[in-house]
Amino acid sequence: MSVQFPEGFLWGGAVAANQCEGAYNEDGKGWSTQDVAPQGIKGPITEVPTEDNMKLVGIDFYHRYKEDIKLFAEMGFKVFRTSIAWSRIFPNGDELEPNEKGLQFYDDLFDECHKYGIEPLVTISHYETPLHLSKHYNGWVNRELVGFYERYSRTLFTRYKGKVKYWLTFNEINSILHEPFMSGGIYTPKDKLSKQNLYQAIHHELVASALAVKIGHEIDPEAKIGCMILSMPTYPLTPNPDDVIAAMQTEHLNYFFGDVHARGIYPGYMKRYFREHGIEIHMEPGDAEILKHTVDFISFSYYVSICETGDDSRRNQTEGNLFSGAANPYLEASEWGWQIDPQGLRYVLNMFYDRYQKPLFIVENGLGAKDVLITGEDGVPTVNDDYRIKYLNDHLVQVGEAIEDGIEVMGYTSWGCIDLVSASTAELSKRYGFIYVDRHDDNTGTLERYRKKSFYWYKDVIATNGQSLQR
């Protein structure tokens, strides 16, 4: 029995501006938090950009996007997820007028997508708060960022009306819980950041996200605006009720973000959490009404699942994208220690749909691996990445199972459809793409693009609307 995907399913791939564009100081762009994080999400930050930061060049997508979009079209992409670099549009973040050269770049990029019949799926803020807003305002801890984001999002909705149908407000918004600088531009060191300030910053982001939904629908009633959550389904390590409750409480901290985006109110379990941790969220007049502007769909990333236990002595830690938990003894792991759980994707699709009854969009999923470039039979360099094909095949089969379960899935964009600089490690050797980019961690390479074996595999998957997948 073949896997059945609905007609019009949005197949494609995903990147982020800060991991692929490069051109960090061209055409009026300001510095972002990514420009001072040369070792990735968990590394130290610098005062100014330094030459060892791979993201300053990325894969030079800024100058090579036409070549890359053509390759995506060759694969048959229906949708291409990318982000807009906030500091290309407002270099410091608090200006009154946008940077025209930055706006024009994305006009040209979206035009190139439409030339091939590819719909852009655009993230408004993807881990790259303008550095000025981080250093001088302490990022989203400061209420003023709501106004700056409102001006920024209004500018985008107005400029790209008719060019961009699908929008996401914040990338992996719940990641602020673990990486407040990268996710929320919060300059206070993580170990000195109070829960009060952290959750106040989260409130500001949630208000800004709802404002963007309101503004986007007013400017372009045809636009579909979603939230984006880092999903990491959490299983109890054992049937012990203590483990079950521990898993539930971990899930609550992540569900909170989806609950507010989809339901427009703060859930009772978070009100209890605030009481027990001495947190008092300051709401401005009108915030509760703004939050009622809920999203059209829920999008999320999925890479791994984790286990939780109420017994710290049994916590054999495993690494995840940003979160980590107890290792699952039934799962294998990638080269970077991320446990591989295709069925977890079916599970999380069911959980989200049961909870929200809104369309779902898988906007990140993929395998980071150390690919080896070889010479193919036709004399052209390639990569025999059967491990990536297996990973993606197995996950997509589970998406098909979820669709059979009755889940409304809009589409799937594989993460890092072309090799890019890793967010978590700032390496290029951690490759995700269907397209190999000749650039290396020592900053050498030609930046030439080569089709991997998975390129042709994914092309076939799209052409057959999933019929070619192997159960």
TrEMBL record:
Question: EC number(s) for this protein?
Answer: 3.2.1.86
Keywords from the UniProt entry:
Glycosidase, Hydrolase
> What Gene Ontology terms describe what this protein does at the molecular function level?
6-phospho-beta-glucosidase activity
Cross-referenced PROSITE patterns = GLYCOSYL_HYDROL_F1_1, GLYCOSYL_HYDROL_F1_2
Asked if the record carries the keyword Hydrolase, the reply is yes
> What SUPFAM superfamilies does the entry give?
(Trans)glycosidases
Catalytic machinery residues = E364
In terms of superkingdom, the source organism counts as Bacteria
Entry annotated with the keyword DNA damage: no
Q: Which PANTHER family match?
A: 6-PHOSPHO-BETA-GLUCOSIDASE ASCB-RELATED, GLYCOSYL HYDROLASE
Q: What NCBIfam families does this protein map onto? A: PRK09593.1, PRK09852.1
What the record says about family reads:
Belongs to the glycosyl hydrolase 1 family.
Protein name, per record: Aryl-phospho-beta-D-glucosidase BglH
